Amino acid sequence: MHTLTRSSIILSRNYNIFTARHVFFAGDLQDSLPGFLKTAQSYAHTQQYHHWQTLKPFFNKRIYYNLITTTEMLKYCDTLVYYWTKNKREANFQLKNILSLLPIGSDIFIVGENRSGVRGAKKMMQNYLNLKKIDSRCRCSLYQGTLQLNPSFNENSFWNQYQIGSIILKSFPGVFGFSGLDAGSQLLISTFKNNMHGKVLDIGCGTGVISAFLLSISPQVDLTLTDIHAAAIASSKATLLANCFPGKVYSSNLYSNVYDRFHMIISNPPFHSGLKTNLDIAYKLIQDAPKFLYRNGELRIVANSFLPYPKILDDTFGNHQIIVNNQSFKVYRSIKI
């Protein structure tokens, strides 16, 4: 995360704008520029635990990781720099949260890659500020405006709820599975049997859908759910609560906060970082899994059929099996010998 994203490159070209400002950075903070861009004082908020880990050495106590931005976080700030997220609903949630708290007259900067939909920021925020493009480079755009009206913000109005069979799913914007059950997770769920038991770790839990289905047929399973996304943590907790299911839910960058061993690790691992394909997360999930499994413990993951996971599974475990597959996805199982 030391290589600058295109969004940070365009911000660094305009560094002189920020030198006398008290800047609040938020949104998709994928690199360390917010930590070393020269300002009068910098603060940051992220919903992504791994971004918090990267930026914490630069900010100390002036960076916050949680779902919601609060008045206390913003009380010294006169400028917002928002890195546009690839999810429009998530951007709307985060921007309305922050703009509802900043004083009228605050300067607002929004930056993002054009293909991420950043052009839509002008229309989305038109009732609160008049954004104008002030720079464009590397297929990125930087917009500036002055806050004219505080939007109303109620986090509860952003919940999405839907039901699959008897299971209630709850989700905030930006969480994988927000609108419904994806085909990969559905295939993974189809491999679960009644009366499974033992300790199970669900990595990248999202809405909590995979764990909820497992608990619905095997209520004796001892489940732990982790994710890097604060909105996913809140969503999984709400899903378990709505179904009266037990389970421990907490933030972790893969295994960074995991201190236990399990009989099974389950996951539908991401293969994108922002807008780019990136297999590093899935590879690390696989390579480190044996440290967190009991002997004869199992890693079970679902992946797009074209992804090259068999070799890394064999290199790590010495074995792999395809439990089920279709035209698009495969469910792999590897056993710690």
UniProtKB/TrEMBL annotation:
Enzyme class at the top of the EC tree: transferase
Domain Methyltransferase small N-terminal: 8-162
Top-level lineage group: Bacteria
Cellular localization per UniProt: Cytoplasm
EC number: 2.1.1.172
Gene3D superfamilies cross-referenced by the UniProt entry: Vaccinia Virus protein VP39
Location, primary (coarse class): cytoplasm
Catalytic activity: guanosine(1207) in 16S rRNA + S-adenosyl-L-methionine = N(2)-methylguanosine(1207) in 16S rRNA + S-adenosyl-L-homocysteine + H(+)
Record's keyword terms, sorted: Cytoplasm, Methyltransferase, rRNA processing, S-adenosyl-L-methionine, Transferase
Assigned GO CC terms: cytoplasm
GO MF entries: 16S rRNA (guanine(1207)-N(2))-methyltransferase activity; nucleic acid binding
One Pfam family matching this protein: MTS
Methyltransferase small domain boundaries: 168-333
InterPro entries (alphabetical): DNA_methylase_N6_adenine_CS, Mtase_sm_N, rRNA_ssu_MeTfrase_C, RsmC/RlmG, SAM-dependent_MTases_sf, Small_mtfrase_dom
Free-text function comment from the UniProt entry: Specifically methylates the guanine in position 1207 of 16S rRNA in the 30S particle.
Protein family per UniProt: Belongs to the methyltransferase superfamily. RsmC family.
Protein's name according to its UniProt entry: Ribosomal RNA small subunit methyltransferase C
Gene symbol of the encoding locus: rsmC
